[in-house]
Specification:
Elements (H helix, E strand, L loop, with lengths): L1 H27 L4 H8 L1 H10 L2 H13 L4 H12 L11 H5 L1 E4 L2 E4 L5 H13 L14 H20 L3 H33 L3 H25 L1
Antiparallel strand pairs: 1-2
Helix pairs in contact: 1-8, 4-10, 8-9, 9-10
Length: 226
């Protein structure tokens, strides 16, 4: 049972890592022409429909059909959603969704740099993942957490190539732990908020794929260690 499951995962690790990398970039910066060209490619959407339910890919399909080349609108919507704390803003930090602190005798939620932020930093360090000096944002940003999963998949891939099953299992356990303790605890809520706040089919599509992917990953990795 374990060996058959692991064999499947050995074949999926590169694809999983690529999805984490793509989604990470989608949250860390506005969509570039290269990113949009990738999505407009029929092969990309075909691959997505083979992985995800049609409902998860529907908005990106609609985006490719209707996109008129307005990159300014996409950049503006990105800033409205993830950068400028105004009406459309959906804060992309885990601590805001999960943590609370006692301030002047009252429980206050929605603050930055909470316990979950500290634990994320701990898990990054434990895995040997270093945040580059040019990254100026917080470690529990959705894009950085997804990039960490890409990092773990890359290390897992190296272990597969070395045929070291104990190291493979170690990285799979790290992936399972990070999703279970962090991503699955708040990313579905973030994705729901994105879909509520924007009418843009690109960002709705990214949110729905993110939600579907994290839920699938959580279920798959849990099945190995339960």
């Amino acid at each position: 049972m374990m060996n058959s499951t692991l064999k499947v995962l050995s074949e999926l690790v590169e694809g999983r890592g690529n999805i984490y990398s793509f989604l990470s970039g989608s949250y860390l910066s506005p969509p570039s022409k290269e990113t949009i060209d990738l999505i407009l490619d029929n092969g990309f959407l075909k691959g997505m429909t083979e992985i995800f339910d049609k409902s998860a890919v529907h908005d990106l399909v609609a985006f490719t059909r209707d996109f008129n080349g307005d990159y300014y609108e996409l950049r503006q919507e990105y800033h409205n959603l993830f950068v400028v704390p105004a009406g459309q803003y959906v804060t992309p930090y885990e601590a805001v969704y999960r943590d609370s602190r006692i301030i002047a005798g009252s429980v206050v939620k929605g603050l930055l740099m909470g316990e979950s932020t500290i634990d994320v930093k701990r898990l990054y360090k434990r895995a040997g993942a270093e945040i580059t000096r040019d990254y100026k944002d917080l470690p529990d940003h959705i894009g950085m957490e997804l990039l960490f999963m890409h990092f773990l998949c890359e290390r897992e891939k190296e272990a597969w190539k070395a045929e070291d099953e104990s190291i493979v299992l170690d990285y799979l356990k790290r992936e399972q732990e990070f999703i279970h303790k962090h991503l699955i605890q708040w990313v579905p809520d973030l994705c729901d908020r994105i879909c509520e706040k924007t009418k843009n089919r690109y960002f709705k599509g990214i949110a729905k794929i993110t939600d579907a992917f994290i839920r699938t990953e959580d279920e798959t990795l849990n099945s190995i260690f339960d």
